[in-house]
Design brief:
The complex is a heterodimer of chains A (285) and B (605). Chain A is mainly alpha-helical. Chain A has twelve helices and no strands. In chain A, helix 1 packs across helix 2 and helix 1 packs antiparallel against helix 8. Chain A is globular, with a radius of gyration of 18 Å. Chain B has 605 residues and is of the alpha/beta class. Chain B folds into two domains: 217 residues, no CATH class; 255 residues, Rossmann fold (3-Layer(aba) Sandwich). Chain B is 57% helix and 10% strand. Chain B has a six-stranded mixed sheet, with helices on both faces. Chain B has a four-stranded antiparallel sheet with strand order 4-3-6-7. A two-stranded antiparallel ribbon of chain B has the order 1-2.
Chain lengths: 285, 605
Amino acid sequence: MLESIVLSGVAIGCVYALIAITYNVMFAASRVFSFTAGTLGMIGGVLGSLFIARMGMPVAVGFLLALAGGAVLGVITEIVAVRPVLKSLEQHLYVLSTLALALMVQQFTAIEWSTEPQPFPRLLDLARSDFDQQFWLPMLACAAVIVGIELLYRHTLIGHAFLAIAEDNYAARALGLPERGLRMTSFALAGAIGALAGFAGGEMLLAFFANAPMLTFYGFVPVALGGLGNNRGAVAAGILLGLFQQSANFLVGGIFASVAVFTVFIVVLLVRPAGLASSAQQRRV
Amino acid sequence: MDTEVTQQATSFRTARSEAPAPASVLSMALPFLALLVVGLTFPLYGGGYWGVIATRACVYWVLVSGLNLVVGFAGQIAIGWVALLTLGAYTTSVLAAGNVGPAWPPYLALAAATVVGGVFGLIIGLPALRLRTFYFAITTLGFATIVTQVALAWQSVTGGGVGVAGPQFPEPFASQWGFYYFCFGIAAVCTWMTANIAASRFGRALTAIRDAEVAAEASGISKPMLLGVVFVFSGAVAAIAGGLFASLQSYITPDAFTIDLSVLFFIAILIGGRSSIFGPLLGTILLTVLPEFAAPLVAWSTFLYAVLLLVIVLVIPGGIAELLDFKNRRPLESDRAIIPRPELVAHLIGTTPATGKLTLEQVTLTFGGVRAISELDLKIDPGQVHGLIGPNGSGKTTTLNVISGYYAPQQGTAKLNGVAMRALVRHERATLRIARTFQTPRIVGSASVLQNVMIGGTVDGKATFVESLLSLPRHRRDETVLRETAMQALAVVGLERLANVRADRLQHSELRFIEIARALMMRPAYLLLDEPAAGLSVDEIERLGALIQAIARAGTGVLLVEHHADLIFDICHHVTVLNLGRTLAAGTPAEIRSHREVIAAYLGA
């Protein structure tokens, strides 16, 4: 029993962590939180199910197409909902524009795909076991992404450019970095990571349009608790969240588990608005 | 002297005639009256199913009217307000159905729901005090999800997925049209109440929190208190809407309370436009009715709402209200000179209460490793102009921010008449009659010039939120007094002709003078001016100087942070020169002018 709680907790936590990284990658490039983060995860699951189960494509092809779909949606987010409001004086408009886009995608999926959860195919032809692929695939995906992101940011030129933009937008532009191009690349990358989350966790979460708001919320919890832009913190907080949720599920039942998660989230945020790992900043007048 | 007094009298008479006349109040009420007539006579031309739609629009508006104060006025992104509709609906239904204890009469159940709604409105809203936009938005969404899930899980009380019957209101509200009039009446009262708030100091304070938070605090507005009250009100009316909604549906299940509904409420406000009552009212009617015109639209309605939201955000952030605001599209005179009338200051400020000296004692403030100011002593006397100069980064604005409570110094205190003022309790400065202006003007762009200036008088309002809600006599007296004082303040700075113009249409220099007028509303004992001359023309600087001198003559102590050395040396009684956070020199203008180090470090040549 304990083993299955830990396994499923870490696995679902890895999905949350991937969505949190999606938030972070978009935020680093634009200082914008996007409501489409969870939608990207949902789309990864739906596209995987569409390409592999419904259209019968090979797993590898379906996988790449699903990621590409996520990347495209990421770029659309940047063009439609982020770029037009970045210049605006009213800083909070992005909340509304990304919410609008997220709702559009979610409703479109509900109507054109299905309002019921659809099965997600088993990706590898392996016998079921306790340590099943539905658990280790999200873990593998999460590990691959966190290692990949660290390598990208620390050891490649484009990664340094990403960091420069995240650190100081104006200075980076003054240095001649193509800010817009880098931002779009970041959103494409974020889109692919989000889709990967939904794809790798597809067997657990199924291909279901309502995963979008669920992932938007549970994916944001690790961002808020782990500290903005801190990907390692997000992974740690994501896995903790998954474990907490699964054990609460087991102890008090599903509904009150989400109440418990929400309560912990609110209390921690109110006590430490900038996350568990950071200190508060003084604001300037 | 005699001529001066007559001059004053005439100028105030003109000032008063500039205030909105009763005719314009009528023209503002006209759209509401038209809707009232349509609503009252609706049963004459709308049959059967349209009656349900009209009732639904009324119910939605009851919720949206309250939410409008949170979203449209205070600018808080409360997306998940459907949570309160759900709470209200279930509280009313469960109590009226007798799922817990004996069945309650429906009115009593609705009253209980109102209380529950008020409490939960506060609980859901309070994180807004700590959390920024996206964080708050997502916590309200989380609340909405949780409430529905609890309704689903708590089967013994809510009936779970099977649901519970909605309350039945007795005659005369049992029939379809009876119930319609019941909802319409509540909606009309909500419209009236929120319009009262919008036109009160609370409404102005809410928009100030939204668009110019630091200026709101400096004007004595306590954000936690004000938002708290508004969240309670908004939660209470949302819960009433929930009770009516349950009765209209006659049977409720958790499925009825989707996020889509929340989005509808939210978008109705944005379509309507912020800080407007009529706009969101139209928006609510529009969004309730629109899907009914085309059956295929119903499935796609949320998608269309989302498209609409995106279009509004990107194309018309001002919403319907701004499209209908013809008055503010008339061109303004292009060649406007600001001619302040310093001779009116004394009448406006009256006799300033003697509050003693304003002092800083050994104040040290560091940001990380940087010492912004260290061991600074400063003394400002009533009725004197105290200049604070120094190169960029020498700690001038920081000093001002310590006095007005934005920064807590690591050492030392700011004292008024020997009593330490609490750091970081910014809104208290207004009750101590310490007013300030800002380096970049902090103005509510969408409000009129007059309303902006009236914000400065917030602490002088006597009426409570409830009195304003019901437009009781004390509220009306407050408004008259504030309006007249504000017109006088505008006359002092020479902008009374622009009183009814939207503030964001004004020039930079005019905004500087509006800030001064707003500060004068407080009848300040001390006035802190942060680079008031920046961006002004030579003539304007001269007039500003005369105005500042007049303010000091009226008894107010002025702290003037400025880069224009000429202005400082012309009007200051005392000058302190800062360099790298320390006092480089202090003395009379003449002494400073000849101070060797000052000349070397700052004045040059």
